[in-house]
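S.,

Sequence below, as promised.
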Amino acid sequence: MNTWSILYDLCMGFGVTLKLFALTLVIALPLGLGFALLSMSKLKPLAYLMKTFIWIIRGTPLLLQCVVVTFIPSVLLKIPNKDFAAAIGTSITDLQFYFVLFAFALNYACYFAVIYEGGIKAIPRGQYEAGQVLGMTKTQIFFRVVLMQMVRRIVSPMSNEVITLVKDTALARALSVIEIIAIAYEKVNKYAVLTPLLYAALFYLAFSGLLTLAFHFIDKKLSYYSV
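The prediction came back faster than expected:
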């Protein structure tokens, strides 16, 4: 068993893990804010529809959502996944990654939406009224008065979700996405040792530790916006 070869392969797999993690955040963070604003809409049917959608997504397993997404081409478009991948000019491997990314982004956007909504509702009503007295529009009040105070309030719950996302990326293995856990299992089966899984755990621990430090730093910097 070549330890360096295993570590190299695990690094390649962790690269896929990081790609899934980063792209999920890039999509889910703004999408979650949009979901939160829709769920707080004064148009009651729209708000109820959004709340119901968020409830469904948060109430079902992420793995199930990943599996359901893979059936979209074959069920809705009546096209096998291989043909669909060829039609959009990609490989079936990349297509599986896109399916997983879509499911992850949608799932975490719904969780972020609940956190955003809680942060927005935690802002004292007087903040909005003060902005109106100064002649600010609702949009200006949100971005200039509410937003940073909201961010300060949601750092802790958001950090929990982000670190959970790091671990949830392991679910991508179930849809044949070759990330770090998939490679670790492959090495375990090949060499009949558990060491690759231990190495994979260390990758996760190190990355989660860095994220914890980053959120702690952000929390300290945003303490200025505490009210």
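The first helix runs from residue 3 to 39.

Coffee later?
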